[in-house]
Amino acid sequence: MNEPPLREPTFLILTALAEEPRHGYAVVEDVLRISDGRIRLRAGTLYAALDRLRSDGLIEVDREEVVQSRLRRYYRLTALGATRLADEVDRLRRHADTAGRRLRAAGLLPEGGTA
Predict the structure, then answer these.
(1) DSSP codes, 67-98
(2) For residues 16 and 10, what is the distance between their CA atoms, to the nearest angstrom?
(3) Mean pLDDT, to the nearest integer, of 76-94?
(4) What was the pLDDT predicted at 2?
(5) Packing angle of the helix pair 24-34, 43-55 (nearest 10 deg)
(6) Measured at the alpha carbon of residue 111, what is the angle toward residues 110 and 112, in degrees to the nearest 5?
(7) Domains of the chain in sequence order
(8) What is the share, in percent, of the chain residues with pLDDT greater than 70?
(9) How far apart are CA 75 and CA 49, in angstroms?
(10) Where does 6-78 have alpha helices with state H?
(11) Are 18 and 85 in contact (CB under 8 A)?
């Protein structure tokens, strides 16, 4: 597949949805957790990304429920979304492996070092 790389927030949203269906706030919280607090999605950013991912067929609505008189929509990864995320994981892993090999070869990373 020759897709453009995913932007980090998109990658993390898909990663959050890979575990289980989640509603918007749960996605925000999981992205914050898996990014070690680096990525804080604002509501506008999140819902624009979710709409785009839905139109691209990477996620879909799993279910809706009313909580405290407000609609809570849960999203899940589609098969296409899982494939796209897996492709991105492979791409990132290949790049990280190449960087690690080059750093070790240049003596800038000890043998067995993390990279």
Answers:
(1) ETTEEEEEEEE-HHHHHHHHHHHHHHHHHHHH
(2) 10
(3) 98
(4) 78
(5) 100
(6) 105
(7) 8-105 (1.10.10.10)
(8) 96
(9) 12
(10) 8-19, 24-34, 43-55
(11) yes
pTM as predicted: 0.90
The token duo for 6 is 């995913």
Name the residue with tokens 């918007």.
Answer: 24
Residues near 97 by beta carbon (within 8 Å), at least 6 away in sequence: none
7 contacts 21 by C-beta, under 8 angstroms = no
Contact call for residues 28 and 41 (beta carbons, < 8 A): yes
Report the chain's terminal Cα–Cα distance, integer Å.
Answer: 25
23 with 72: CB under 8 angstroms?
Answer: yes
How many other CB atoms are there within 10 angstroms of residue 47's CB atom? 14
Instruction: Retrieve residue 76's tokens.
Output: 């899940």
Residue type, 7: R
CA pair distance 2, 30, nearest whole angstrom? 28
Residue with tokens 């190449």: 98
